[in-house]
Amino acid sequence: MSSSIPAIDLRVLGRTPIEPCIEAMRRFTETRQPGTPDTPGTPDQIWLCEHDPVYTQGVAGKPEHVLINPGIPMLQTNRGGQVTYHGPGQVVAYPLIDLKRLGIYVKEYVFRLEQAAIQVLDSYGLAGQRVRGAPGIYVRIQDAHDPTDPLSGMGKIAALGVKVSNHCTYHGLALNVAMDLAPYQGINPCGYAGLPTLDLASLGVSTTWDEAAQRLGQRLSALLRP
Predict the structure, then answer these.
(1) How many domains does the chain have?
(2) What CA–CA distance (Å, rounded) separates 142 from 103?
(3) Centroid of chain to Cα 105
(4) 3-class SS of residue 115
(5) For each of the chain's 226 residues, which pLDDT tens digit applies?
(6) Is residue 23 part of a domain?
(7) Cα–Cα nearest to 181, from 213, 159, 151
(8) Is residue 164 in some structural domain?
(9) Is residue 13 part of a domain?
(10) Can you give the CATH number for the domain in which 129 is found?
């Protein structure tokens, strides 16, 4: 690693209210100092969180993707993407990364977030997959019924929604570990009607939130440093 770039500060925050968390990320991003040839700037951080039950909607989110709300709060956010669900038993990773200092663009950043999730799944013996045009990570759960639909036979296990301001990122990646998956039935997850949503537990993996968070944090830290 270049001596001019500080190490990533990995913070395991655990159960954290989502609204103050988003506001703290926004403030951090707006006030951080960029790196220059003479100064390293504000060190990047990765926050690992778990939230109480909440639906979040992205900036381009369409209300028709909310089918039924079983009394779960709905929060409008400034991230990309459509509606998703956060709840206990899910690791939410918020990388606060200076892309300009790292020397990558948003497309490569998203690729690295997805790669971190794929590597974590691989460490548990699961094959995570990308699907073109559908950000996030999927696991094949049955043979495709419709060969023209790339999501046919797939279930989603990790969702992605990012915000980039002044070349710096916030929001991020959510990996389902051992959740109550029922709230996903009230939405079209990430805008895809009928898309099954999975977690590690439903795929036969027994692990703790802390263990999954550590694995995800380690992989993100490795992939988001020069």
Answers:
(1) 1
(2) 39
(3) 17
(4) helix
(5) 455 678 899 999 999 999 999 999 999 999 999 876 677 889 999 999 999 999 999 998 898 999 988 899 999 999 998 999 999 999 999 999 999 999 999 999 999 999 999 999 999 999 999 998 889 999 999 887 787 888 889 999 999 999 999 999 999 999 999 999 999 999 988 888 888 999 999 999 999 999 999 999 999 999 999 7
(6) yes
(7) 159
(8) yes
(9) yes
(10) 3.30.930.10
Q: Find all residues with CB under 8 Å of 14, minimum gap 6, and list them.
A: 48, 49, 50
Query: CA 53 to CA 154: how far, in whole Å?
Result: 24
Look up 190 and say whether it is catalytic.
yes
Q: Which candidate in 21, 49, 168, 190 is catalytic?
A: 190
Residues contacting 174, CB < 8 A, separation 6+:
84, 86, 90, 91, 92, 93, 158, 159, 160
Three-class DSSP category at 87: coil
pTM of the model: 0.94
Strand-pair partners of 49: 14, 92
Does 54 map to a domain? yes
Q: Which residues pair with 106 in a beta bridge?
A: none
Neighbouring residues of 90: CB distance < 8 A, sequence distance ≥ 6: 50, 51, 174, 175, 176, 177, 179, 199
Domain of 173, in residue numbers: 9-223
